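Per-record layout

source: Falsarthrobacter nasiphocae
name: Class I SAM-dependent methyltransferase
length: 285
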Amino acid sequence: MVEKSRELAVRPGRPVGHVTRGTTAANRMRRVDRWLCGTHASVLTRAARPLVVDLGFGAAPWTAAELFRRVRAVAPDAELMGLEIEQARVALARAVEEPGLSFELGGFELATPRPPRVVRAFNVLRQYEEKDVPGIWATMAARLDPGGVLIEGTCDEVGRTAAWVCLGQEGPRTLTLAVNPWLVSRPSDVAERLPKALIHRNVPGEPVHRLLAEADRAWDRAAAHGAFSPRQRWAAMARALTDAGLALGRAPYGGRVLGGPARWRLGELTVPWSVARPADGPLAG
């Protein structure tokens, strides 16, 4: 793992990016995979043989193979390509290849046979600086198939807490926080898993800090719902954020907590990027 950021190495014929630590575990990406297949099924089904890329699948191919199975349940003709910048990881992963599932050497340049419909890049940008993020996002988004999505984020070692940004070719669209409601004390527990674009912005005066503070207050007010289950408490928290915004007629939450109760009960909270984007810098626009 590279401990400090460097300029992206762009060399002819070489993958773009730095080698990551490669830590992975079975079922670690279940929350983001469930969200993708549940909320963006049409992205997969509206394209013939949609190509899904798992960028930086790590030292073992387990989570790439799991994504392949989950996507195939939605789009039976989907194909998945795992990309890694380290040749030894690719060689190891090829032992589990099967029709529709392959592994290649690659990085942010996404040198795939055709534009990918979906790119999942998880736990890849943690080693970079915040200033690197816009360029990396732009490099990957430019390679997307029209109508495709890039999902970039971070999760803990076993997938209990996660956060990700969903982007299209035009840029970031939404931020999703996802947790196991039984294993968090409050919504802001996810702060340490915010994507690189936001993790250093969780300070007073920043929109993402306000989002987490408002979510914590709503969580506290929803304590009685915990008698039914932590899932119900999380859903009540999300509903309270929406209702408070609607009642007061103010941004950022008025009618803009996305997904609805079915998603909220899964421990998800999705908001437009405009709710959480940095207050200044290239990602503020």
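summary: Residues 131 and 282 are 8 Å apart (CA to CA). The chain is about 30% helix and 20% strand.
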